[in-house]
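[Discussion] Sanity-checking designs against the backbone

I'm trying to build intuition for which residues belong where. Below is a structure token string of 150 positions. I'd appreciate it if someone posts a full sequence so I can compare it with mine line by line.
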């Protein structure tokens, strides 16, 4: 498989993973924000879409910023910062795409939307790095068949 296809595949897989992880956070948020279920929002999608987009953008940022290093070789602080950048970019999408239709000030609405997405993205990036390091430590992909049985 070519390098670009591998990169696209890894970005999509990371996006799907982050989307699945972010859905329970959105469902917990719905229990706090909308306990009577009076809003029409599909809370599963409210967690899945930003999670998927954040992971794909994070993958692109990693490709651009760290071309010569493998993902498991990066520092946790750097990966967290790059994850936060990706989350901030995704959190700003509603404000670039539309206008404020609420009575809240725009800065407060930006903080309420972009803040949690940025935090979740940074945490997800750190978790992805921890999983990559664990996989490299176990060396599961390159291990011979008889080692995997032990």
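Best answer:
Here's mine. Compare freely.
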């Amino acid at each position: 498989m070519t390098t670009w296809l591998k990169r696209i595949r890894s970005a999509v897989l990371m996006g799907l993973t982050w989307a699945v992880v972010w859905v329970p956070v959105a469902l917990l948020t719905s229990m706090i924000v909308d306990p009577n279920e009076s809003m029409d929002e599909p809370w599963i999608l409210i967690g899945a879409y930003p999670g998927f987009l954040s992971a794909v953008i994070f993958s692109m940022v990693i490709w651009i910023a760290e071309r010569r290093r493998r993902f498991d070789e990066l520092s946790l602080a750097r990966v967290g910062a790059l994850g936060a950048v990706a989350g901030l970019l995704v959190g700003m999408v509603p404000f670039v795409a539309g206008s404020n239709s609420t009575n809240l000030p725009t800065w407060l609405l930006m903080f309420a939307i972009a803040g949690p997405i940025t935090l979740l993205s940074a945490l997800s990036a750190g978790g992805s790095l921890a999983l990559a390091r664990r996989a490299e430590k176990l060396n599961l992909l390159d291990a011979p068949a008889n080692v995997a049985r032990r």
